[in-house]
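Our example copied in:
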Amino acid sequence: MTAVAPKPAAKPAAAKPRKKLPKELAVITADNCTGCEACVEVCPVDCIYKVPGEDMPGLQSFCDIDLERCIGCKLCERWCPWDAIDMVPTQQVAQAVAEKGGPPGYVEKNWDKLVAAAQTIAEIAWEQSQATKK
């Protein structure tokens, strides 16, 4: 029997800056999400992840979205059985993320990470909209 050498691990691709933003991005309202993961299963770019109860083991888990990877395909919104996902115009995504709710401890701990990406995306979308008006 011949031993087969394992394949080398794939190198992670460097994140490329977006050339064009989607018109809408998905935002999960954490208070409506049950953590069923239906959205995780249908996401073609794997930008949805489950947030465990972290420091509160009895807390219901929920899902969240990496907005920097979301392509605005709307599959997650269509498949969510709890109507916990809304497609939000890209220019308004920072406001929607700020209001999406969730356990206060999680929101406080992750506020900068959650809102910073959304704010950056919203600013880029606004700049792109201004450039197309000229």
